[in-house]
Write a structure and sequence with these properties.
2 domains; Alpha-Beta Plaits; 297 residues; 4-stranded antiparallel beta sheet
């Protein structure tokens, strides 16, 4: 009879553990999907910021004594930009010949009779580092800073497009962070409830150990270790499922499979699973230790 009871208890314990792992895995899987959306939305925002170029036009030197060194001075200036200013990510030199070709292409004509060879000045196209630029006001100050150099004639940027993009990025970031916080609270509640149901099934065992003189630390320790292992297993399963889903999706839409920020997402998902499982186990077990025997029913 006792063997039958032991088998039943082991089967119920195994079933309880499987239920907890599946529940936590599903919740973390959904949180991971939301994390992928946030990461890729941020990546797209950075892509849009990189598309907002600043173009600094060089002065067309008339003095023959300076004219010979014009190209050298321009190259020295371009080389110094990334060294002096950390907010500059990349530069591209556009010669007068290149500027003429671009103008012909944009106007849809190849007729050189419409243009003088040197009508368009040489310039440098500047790509800003999206991690250091957070507002249009910063870009305005950068324009003023670049224009101070004596070899620069004019600095241009599409300010209206910048304003629109930065406003939209700020709105999207605000709502994504808001939804992420709400979803994280839901995740904590769901994982906590799953762990509490598991501990509830063992409440009599907890109280029995306490009644025979076991210390609270001795009683709680194995439950915490078990909870941490279940959280780790659930987090790992969620990460594997998320990786398979993303790999299939990325290949379908020809999107990059890997992003360095996914490392943080993996650590966060596993960490959330372990940490919440530990604290939920601790609080639930501690609660039943404080209850009287007649309150367990």
């Amino acid at each position: 009879m006792s063997k039958t009871i032991d088998k039943f208890e082991k089967r119920r314990l195994r079933s309880s553990n499987i239920t907890v792992v599946i529940s936590i895995s599903l919740v973390l899987f959904l949180l991971g999907i939301f994390g992928l959306i946030v990461i890729n939305a941020q990546s797209y925002a950075e892509h849009l910021k990189r598309e907002l170029k600043i173009e600094a036009y060089f002065k067309d030197e008339k003095d023959p004594r300076v004219k010979d060194k014009e190209l050298i001075n321009q190259q020295v200036y371009i080389d110094s930009l990334k060294v002096k200013y950390p907010f500059i990510e990349a530069t591209k030199y556009i010669s007068k010949t290149d500027a003429l070709k671009i103008a012909k292409k944009e106007l849809g004509t190849d007729g050189s009779e419409f243009f003088e060879e040197s009508i368009f000045p040489a310039s440098v196209l500047i790509t800003l580092n999206p991690n250091t630029i957070t507002s249009v006001a910063q870009i305005d100050s950068i324009n003023v800073l670049l224009a101070k150099n004596p070899i620069i004639d004019e600095v241009k940027s599409d300010k209206q497009a910048m304003i629109t993009i930065y406003q939209n990025i700020n709105k999207i970031t605000f709502w994504l962070i808001g939804f992420a916080c709400i979803f994280l609270v839901i995740v904590i509640v769901l994982i906590n409830n799953s762990i509490r149901l598991k501990i509830f099934a063992k409440r009599f065992s907890i109280k029995t150990m306490q009644l025979v003189g076991a210390r609270r630390r001795f009683i709680i320790k194995p439950f915490i270790i078990e909870g941490a292992l279940l959280g780790l297993l659930a987090g790992s399963i969620a990460v594997i499922g998320l990786s398979v889903l993303w790999y299939v999706f990325a290949n379908k839409v020809n999107y990059p499979v890997w992003n360095p920020n996914y490392n943080y997402l993996i650590l966060i998902l596993i960490g959330i699973g372990v940490v919440i499982a530990i604290f939920s186990t601790l609080f639930a077990a501690w609660r039943y230790l404080r209850l009287k025997t007649d309150q367990l029913y």
